[in-house]
Queue: 4 jobs
Job 1
Amino acid sequence: HRTAAVIPAAGRGVRLGPGAPKALRALGGTPMLVHAVRAMARSRAVSLVVVVAPPEGAAEVRLLLDEHTLPDRTEVLVVPGGETRQESVRAGLDALPADVTSVLVHDAARPLVPVDTVDSVVEALRAGAPAVVPGLPLADTVKEVGPGAPGRPEPVVATPERARLRAVQTPQGFDLPTLLRAHAEIALAGEGATDDAGMVERLGVTVVVVPGHDEAFKVTRPLDLVLAEAVLARRRA
Ligand code: C5P
């Protein structure tokens, strides 16, 4: 029984503004991707990390990872990604050796996830859950909006009860055969998903939520970079 982590890092990160692919941007002087790989490697359960790189940047990513220190027990593979996050994750899963039974899928864009969050996901998998996501209650009330007239304010159609909602993060943990089946069946149906657990849910498999962490936030917009730098500075103080 071996647990591997797959890190999709092939996105361009357009919402962050112009510049290098998001995963290669520096945080505290170190590329975001290196932080993300270290965050997975810090867990004793993880002995293999598969990084899914931009197709044209795989060689550069390999060099970059070789330049940075990682725990000795961690093996790191780099494979080229695809057009969508889903295709990139699939490329990472296809690279896993046969002895891997569980997988954590972790966004490169969540570089600061604490090891305790990673370990709680692994623990729930070991306790028998086929799919596990870290999640947090929401501070904001969420509205569902309907299609409105072009150029007019959007009409609200529903307000889900906030106490029952969770904002989900990564790493998302899976029994590997279950995630492979989800990828095969959902891709066959031509459907997309914004996270891996969503695909597993569509198989009718129960996904469980363990507590997430504020520091597992996704670096998406410019303000998130400011927050990430502040979190790193506080850790180093
Ligand atoms: O775009 P979003 O923030 O949802 O991306 C989440 C993660 O998926 C990022 O780490 C990004 O690099 C990755 N991704 C990918 N391949 C794509 C698109 C996104 O690996 N084609």
Note: Residues 2-232 form a domain with the Spore Coat Polysaccharide Biosynthesis Protein SpsA; Chain A fold (CATH 3.90.550.10).
Job 2
Amino acid sequence: SCPKIKLNNGVEIPILGLGTWQSKPNEVATAVEYALKEVGYRHLDCAWMYGNEKEVGEGIRKSGVPRSEIFITSKLWCTEHQRVEAAIDESLANLGIDYLDLYLIHWPIHLNPNGNHPTFPTLPDGKRDVLYDWKLKDTWAQLEAVLKKGKVKAIGVSNFSKRILETEILPYATVVPAVNQLEIHLYNPQHNLIEYLRSKGIVPQAYSPLGSTNSPLLTDETASAIASKHGLQTADVLLGYLVEKEIVTLPKSVTPARIASNYTGALAAASKLTKEDVEKLDGVAASGKQKRLITPPWPVDLGFENWPGQ
Ligand code: A2P
């Protein structure tokens, strides 16, 4: 079974989870059922914004795996910062469950809830409709309240830089975020931010650990050479590299063979990688390959190193 990590509130999280961003509604139910029933995944990473939570819920029920054995995460979309509990209720209803294991603020950005588009409101000049004056501590206080009520077992953030954590969350928080979910992979390893998170007891989670769609990581020379040396696939090494660092890793796939190999391959790679392999992989981004692969559609300085356009 999958190794677990203890969060700062004692809740245990399986180190591998199935990502569901960009999984089409008509594919995700089968993918989730397969992952739970046939492979042994016990962790699903979801979000209201992915538009497929109903179908994820179907997959959970079809798998026959009891709810209590599965770790389920959802996320607050950017338009919903003023109605956190209602947004959680919506995700719970969509998934067909009565509590979440983890709930995250999806981005440190509040978009206009009365804007012209339900998820990505735009202004007449084409810019995103961002409410710049909103205080994220007021969002966080609502997550703390819902945690107290028991609708969620742990709370955290996603896409938060050190600067935003230090200026907008930690000085006001009663509960320190349990996790920060970030774009973490071979070409965007975020070494400094992860070290900072560790110092605060915040567990890093990696989304797009394989580099998302049309990934340049799958043909990376260093990762491929290490993979063939150990008789592994390059994807296994990309995932095992993160697992071995105790980063919660969330590969997305709707393809049964990949859903299976990502799970078994990541665990195999995590145990086979040598200290020397890891050092080589640690240096890849700094050798000229540093690249964020996910560019959010808002022109806001979020305080990250290596943010596109800075
Ligand atoms: P698919 O879902 O069609 O199988 P990430 O987890 O970094 O976001 O990457 C997800 C992307 O990588 C998806 O396009 C997914 O395709 C593909 N993918 C997932 N697992 C593998 C794998 N083991 N080998 C190659 N591509 C993969």
Note: The chain has a mean pLDDT of 96.
Job 3
Amino acid sequence: LASATATDQANPVDVLRRVFGYDSFRGTQQEIIGHVVSGGDALVLMPTGGGKSLCYQIPALVRPGVGVVVSPLIALMQDQVDALEELGVRAGFLNSTQDHAQRRSTEQAFLAGELDVLYLAPERLKLDTTLDLLDRGEVSVFAIDEAHCVAQWGHDFRPDYLELSVLHRRYPDVPRIALTATATPATREEIAERLQLTEARHFVADFDRPNIQYRIAPKNDPRKQLLKLLQDEHPGDAGIVYRLSRAEVERTAEFLSSNGINALPYHAGLDKPTRAEHQSRFLREDGVVMVATIAFGMGIDKPDVRFVAHLDLPKSIEGYYQETGRAGRDGLPSTAWMAYGLQDVMQQRKMIDNSDGDEAHRRMLGRHLDSMLALCETVECRRSRLLAYFGQDAAQPCGNCDTCLTPPESWDGTVAAQKLLSTIVRLKRERNQKFGAGQIIDILRGKNTTKVEQFQHAELSVFGVGSDLGDNEWRGVIRQLLAQGLLAVEGDYGTLVLTDVSGEVLRREDPRQVWLRTEPKRTPQAKAK
Ligand code: ADP
Ligand code: ZN
């Protein structure tokens, strides 16, 4: 096997063909590589699967010296190094999983100019020993992978990334390339600022993933809804199912397994060997369904993931985009399906209320959630909304998302909203009480439950004024009012309270109109054990 060393008088296209075995560059790869090879800084925004790795691997091979790649994905470094070595590229890594001897031998190879690419965990750049090492060797390019980790208000912040500005100060002549698959225009600015990439050229790829069909369904029995999706549309396909909690991961994996699906759990609570085994079975076997928390997936390169299902609401659009982006990397039709309901909104709001960090941090989390909810409740093309979030205009509805395929109906929910909000007002004013969604709905529908009797809620003037709508429809009203900011939840019991703008709906004169999505009919249930 011919060794691909930096001393070869190579140009990028040669390296692409000879070392990586590809015929041509994709999208903006060639431009990016040309810019970095000639010494320029770059900020690259490219969706998952877009081909970011070559953007720094080829400059590392073409320029003299070692390409240093900073990556938070320590667990994947060995795989990345193995993959490069298989191509004849000399690669190594330095991270906390190594013993002293392993580290020493990598350091020596680096100093001797016997490496083309060196992967580095970000925390190592805090160490003087690492900086001394870099001082004594020759670095061809610094690549900062998963660069959004430097954004403090992003969804994936890693404090160690803040240290990376040292690279610019200490090695002003070494070109830097920062790469990420997920960044809004605001995050992009933050990355550029914090990494001192002020002179960098920005390369923003098309974020559209046309082969992914986006669908967001109301949640009633998520595991059975999922099973139906798998049985009807994805029998035998590989896919990822995301759940919020470890317990739900376990339960969902068991449920799928007992219904004949080849499903495995993955979360940070499983021991390391189990996680490694499940991950490698997912990668190597056909048709494995990985049920996981978001601990799973970063850096996973499996081209034929046919579906990604979210059974709980993601915390942000960035997370949603990144997770769904693991589907269909081979370009073939794939499904991004999500089930979402009132309980998700309640749960997420509660998590934000109870989160660490200051008020500003909580407000930021709230904004992330609001954007995610707006995507869930939109009656417009999901893809257009998604791309708009990343600052990209979609000219027309995509024709490959649920709202395009079956346009949702909307209805004037102003009166329903008034009934609901005034029930909350009356409970507060007349009884000094607050309740959660369940009790409010029982009052609106005029149900004589034990709890209604206990609190004598049948005596309220609003009792039964909402009997025209069913439970499910009322839950939909509440969910959408929460998403629109016309209603809020409070405390551990999820009591419903008004917001600053609720009053606009309750005004006697010219009340604010409230448009709501019609709740779709419940889908037929899957045959489950
Ligand atoms: P990213 O890091 O952006 O998620 P990768 O760098 O892992 O994406 O690339 C995704 C896949 O596309 C990989 O399997 C890679 O080998 C392949 N790939 C990248 N560039 C090209 C190219 N120019 N031609 C063919 N395949 C490519
Ligand atoms: Zn669409």
Note: Residues 381-383, 397-398, 401, 403-404 surround zinc ion (ligand 2) (CB under 6 Å).
Job 4
Amino acid sequence: MSAGVWSRYGISLLAVLAAIQIVVGCGGKEIVKVGIESNFRPFTYTEGGENKGFEIELWQEIAKKANIKYELVPMKSSELTKAIKSGEVELAIAGMTVNKARKENFAFSDPYFQTGLVILTASDNKEIKGKDDLDRKVIATKLGSTAYIYASGIQGIKEVRGYPDISEAYNQLINKSVDAVIFDERNVHDFQQNTGKGKVKIVGEVLNKESYAVVADKKSKYIGRINQAIAAVAKDGTYETLYAKWFGGQPAKLPGQ
Ligand code: ARG
């Protein structure tokens, strides 16, 4: 056979391989990179080299139902949205609160967790009993978070200090360098029960109604399937089982209610 015939076979073989790859890709067999946070207990955190948390397990169930193959990519929360923008990851599940400003830049799934913000102060603080007692007080929280935006809007506040990692804000409170921390309810609760036990207390009521959703690049084709899967885990009891395991008791509202 002449070299010309071989190369013609070669080309058609490549074309067949390419076609197979396209078909496999459409079948959802590609591996989707999903950003998670390494320090947002009890939702997503890394401990002893393992990814743990309510969101890690919830995502596992969602992905199973949505037929999405994935790889988790742990990072700092400040890197999450950048990683979506740059294409390093396509999706993220990391206690991401849905709000209007973020919706302009990203796509969100249906919410899967209802929550809010709370005030944490030192156990022996007798002045701060709620939001109305924050006049001329110094608040610590996480930079770029919804809590940072919320705290900055409280009338009469002296200063809001933002830290890249929430652990630093908690440390400032333990050291009494700040008067209070405002942050996501469940994360504050976790800190108060573990590292901060005996040193801090939650005061007042839940401040800002927020809900968490999966965040994605606006071009992502997965949001529809993820929404169907969220509805399915709510319907078949999987959501309630995971909720009971991580938070105890029953959720006030199931996703979609
Ligand atoms: N829910 C808050 C927000 O979206 C704080 C989240 C901080 N942690 C995280 N993994 N994103 O701003």
Note: The chain is about 40% helix and 25% strand.
